[in-house]
Amino acid sequence: MRFSITTWNINSVRLRLPIVEQFLVREKPDILCLQEIKCRAEEFPLEPLQAMGYEHIVLHGQKGYHGVAIISKVPLSEDHRQDYCKVGDARHISAIFERGGRRIRLHNFYVPAGGDEPDRAINPKFGHKLDFVEEMKALKADMPGVSSILVGDLNIAPLEHDVWSHKQMLKIVSHTPVETEGLTEVMAKGGWLDLMRQHVPASEKLYTWWSYRAKDWEAANKGRRLDHIWSSPELGPLLENIEVLKEARGWNRPSDHVPVTATFRM
Are 253 and 16 in contact (CB under 8 A)? Predict the structure, then answer.
């Protein structure tokens, strides 16, 4: 039986609720993980999403910015949110669901963007991002009796072909060596498997984000892979496919990120 999980930085769930609903009607994922919902818990559009069959919702909201949510057709339990860097930002939530006789802990992250200058001495936002990634290195994929999936906007494109130009991006926040090496270490220390690169070779370009600043984002195609889906190793063989819905970047009032969906047989 197929089972699907989507990650999407929606850049304001209330502003973009129409395209969220459009996506859910069309693609029907079992679980949708949103980042940058930009609202408090009491402002989240629970009723319209629950009316579409997504009855199980856990979220970590925040006034004005940040915020993450897990919207699910299947029951969720043991919801938890980690305060990375102890600054009170709503950047992580996790919950457990069951499928195919497995208990699976699903993590949903929104890693800080890091500002424009890749120097923590003059840019505190970049320092915050590096500290956040450092704390993520303690997160283990292999937990007793529980499999793991990690999704979200990690705001780092770690591989050479995760950006439109490796050479030109080396000094640009999201692809600097200190960031890419840090994220690679998060994967290695935690025992995580990069599911998106399991079906798309590292030698092929793969993007999930296109800047609002581009006059014609599609023609320029200066993308980055900022959104990720990882898992504990035993789930790797169950992955059927990964879909990056690039066309969503051209929808009405779009996010600059597009939905990424992993489909498993479990």
Answer: yes
Provide φ and ψ at 42, rounded to 5°: -70, -15
- Separation in Å, CA 264 to CA 78, 96, 234, 243: 22, 17, 12, 12
What are residue 262's DSSP bridge partners?
5, 242
Q: Assess contact for 190 and 139: CB atoms under 8 A.
A: yes
pTM score: 0.97
Tokens of 188: 């290695």
Model pLDDT, residue 65: 87
Low-confidence ranges of the chain (pLDDT < 70): none
From residue 100, how far is each of 95, 97, 215 by CA, in Å? 17, 10, 46
Angle at 77 between CA 96 and CA 261, to 5 degrees: 45
CA distances from 14 to 34, 37, 43, 61 (A): 12, 8, 8, 12
247 Cβ contact partners less than 8 Å away, ≥ 6 residues apart: 258
Distance CA 228, CA 226 (A): 7
Q: Could you give the angle at which helices 177-190 and 124-136 cross, rounded to 10 degrees?
A: 20
Where does residue 49 rank: exposed (0-12), middle (13-18), buried (19+ CB within 10 A)?
Answer: buried
Reported as a single tens digit per residue, the pLDDT across 225-237 is 999 999 999 999 9
Provide the residue range defining the domain that includes 103.
2-265
Question: How many whole angstroms separate alpha carbon 158 and alpha carbon 207?
Answer: 11
CATH of residue 260: 3.60.10.10
**Predicted pLDDT at 64:** 85
CA distances from 112 to 44, 127, 191, 206, 253 (A): 21, 10, 22, 21, 23
- Quote the pLDDT of residue 216: 94
Q: For the chain, how many structural domains are there in total?
A: 1
Pairing of strands 2-9, 31-35: parallel
